[in-house]
Amino acid sequence: MSINTYKCVDVGSENCPCELAVTGDCLTCSRLQGKEVCDCDWKGVCILNEFMFNGRHAQNRRKEKECPVLSKYRADSDFIILEIGVQKGFAIRCMYPGTYLFLRSPEYDHYYDVPVSILDVSLSRPSVTVGIRILSAKTKALNEAEKAVFVRGPYRGGMAGKNFRNMGGRIVILSSGAGVCPGIFACNLLSAVSEVSLIAKDAPFEKEMVRKFFHPRDFILTDSAGKERNRKYSRGGNIVFRDFESDREMEKIRRSVRMEKPDFIVILGSRKFVAEMYGAMREFRTQARFVTSNNVSICCGEGICGACEITLRSGEKIRMCKCSESADPEELFAEPVQSLNR
Ligand code: FES
């Protein structure tokens, strides 16, 4: 009997069982898939039992809600920051690394839903802040929203890597471009329980984002010349800006990683950036667990449409919006990079 080892990011959450249980496609429960025996390795509350108890319906289906735009401004020529007013309970549920939301302008229909990583959460306002690079039809449509946006979420699969939701210990985060948004967010959250080093690209955009959204109570800011800035406390970790394109700077990064001996190395940015950094950090693959941005094409986020499906080396197919905790970055980013495509 084979054990089903897929780990769905929603399993055991308030959104489990989901629509996939209704159609007999639950990614974790073999009984809901129509098998005679239970062969899941889920150690929480039985999904089948929950499904029956819930009258064979999905639990807490994520619904979109119109929310006010509290502030909007341009952080770069093609990058906007939106602060969106939400209910406090919703804001609390967003406070996990790798969380993302679907957003769209009220003037457009569902074709225009855009998955966007969370950059910051405020419980006092309460609000969530996101950074959006304006690239094409969906993001251009979202950019037209001035007063309100439709919000659906939160979704938990914004990162990929075994057990990324249990990150702890020493963590090194490499981030560039839009990847600096989930990088800052992860740092702000994880620094309360872990020792985190954020290494961001040494460029005006990344520096500005760190300056605005990093909550620096526990951090030392260091520029690429090695000068410490804004020293507060030594506990919690440090932030360094580096030029990832310079061999000399990359060697400095590797040297500091060798000294820090992190438990997790997190790489956040474009598919190209992640693949390059994964290659550059090759020597640490046996010592640290790798976590990356979940850079596949996300469409529904619910495991239904199949847009995010990838084929593992074993030939098995997994849906990365739901099973990104089952994917090893070695499968995704070890050369050739095209292994990401279906
Ligand atoms: S985005 Fe639709 S199945 Fe993953």
What does this protein structure show overall?
The protein is an alpha/beta fold and 342 residues long. It has helices at residues 19-22, 47-53, 88-93, 137-143, 180-190, 204-213, 247-260, 271-280, 329-333; strands spanning 65-76, 79-85, 100-104, 114-122, 127-133, 148-155, 159-160, 170-175, 195-201, 220-222, 228-229, 237-242, 264-268, 289-293, 309-311, 317-319. The strands form three sheets. Strands 7-14-13-8-9-12-10-11 form an eight-stranded mixed sheet, sandwiched between helices. It has a six-stranded antiparallel β-barrel with strand order 1-2-5-4-3-6. It has a two-stranded antiparallel sheet with strand order 15-16. Helix 5 packs parallel to helix 6 (204-213). The longest helix is centred in the C-terminal third of the chain and has 14 residues, at 247-260. The chain is globular and about 60 Å long. Residues 298-301, 303-308, 319, 321 line the site of FE2/S2 (inorganic) cluster (FES).
Distance between the termini: 28 Å
Summarize the main sheet: 8 strands, mixed
What is the CATH C level class of the largest domain, in words? Alpha Beta
Which segments are poorly predicted (pLDDT under 50) over 5 or more consecutive residues?
230-235, 336-342
SSE order: HHEEHEEEHEEEHEHEEEHEHEEEH
Helix content: 10-25%
Provide mean pLDDT, rounded: 88
Please describe the structure with a list of short key phrases separated by commas or semicolons:
342 residues; alpha/beta; Elongation Factor Tu (Ef-tu), domain 3; Rossmann fold; 3 domains; eight-stranded mixed beta sheet; six-stranded antiparallel β-barrel; 16 strands; globular; binds FE2/S2 (inorganic) cluster
